[in-house]
Write a structure and sequence with these properties.
The chain is mainly α. The protein contains eleven helices and two strands, in the order ααααααββααααα. About 40% of the residues are buried.
Length: about 325
Amino acid sequence: MDVSGWVWAATAVFVVGLLVFDFFAHVRTPHAPSFSESARWSIFYVVLALVFGVVVGMAWGWDFGTEYFAGYITEKSLSVDNLFVFLIIMTKFAVPREFQQKVLLVGVAIALVLRTVFILLGAAAIEQFSWVFYIFGAFLVYTAVKLAREHHDPDHPEDEKVGEGLAVRMLKRFVPTTDEYHGDRLTVRIDGKRFLTPMLVVMVSIGATDVLFALDSIPAIYGLTQEPYIVFTANAFALLGLRQLYFLIGGLLDRLVYLSQGLAVILGFIGVKLVLHALHVNELPFINGGEPVEWAPEIPIWLSLTFILGTLTVATVASLLKTRHDDRVSSPES
């Protein structure tokens, strides 16, 4: 896939421009977005991502277009799962609803920067060392097992540590902070002394959490495509609109009870795909004498896309059926 420098630059400017527009059009004036506002802009960003995928297919071929769609759907699904953690952090810090947009937009901006760094590092590693695929594959299988055991619940005891990560603890230890919000200000002067407000602390927490998200998402998409441009754009369009999606489906998050399990199956599938690819291009001397393993199949991208869509459909339908059944049991007809 031959992507010129000016295309990279134009894409980066376009993505940054959307973030700047989002800030001045929606976030600069604090308010809690309505359902209709969140729905309109969520649809806008999804349609924009789909149109971009069509452009990729028309410009570079539909093999790359399919890779983009598979990557976008995977990253979008992981982003929805990340909303559970954002919800827990917002609840823990008691962020007023009208200020949550600003926190989320800053989180999206931090995530884009961090993922861009990881994308560049991943691309450089893959180009130099084909055995990196073994590491990515093993990490994704490990992540899949861990994710399958997760239970997203803002009141769950094991989630109490969320938000109070190392970055937040270090910040509170060395910098004076206040427990009271002062509008959407990041700092405030009290009795002549400058304090950090919870708004800045929660942003640090979101940013630190984004590092962990990037560790999961970048190996996952490199299991679907080795094109850095597709990796970057799929991540960017998956993150754009995440703020609106948070307010749109916030009330439905607790109904997607099998989302983690569905994503675990997807990550496990991609992890196995990466290991098979690593075997197919093997250069490690202690595996098959340093020669490629001929029997290792290459899973085609159309099969990956079909598997991802099918798994997400099953997980969503099963979640809705489970929560509907639980509602009927907990609220029997009198």
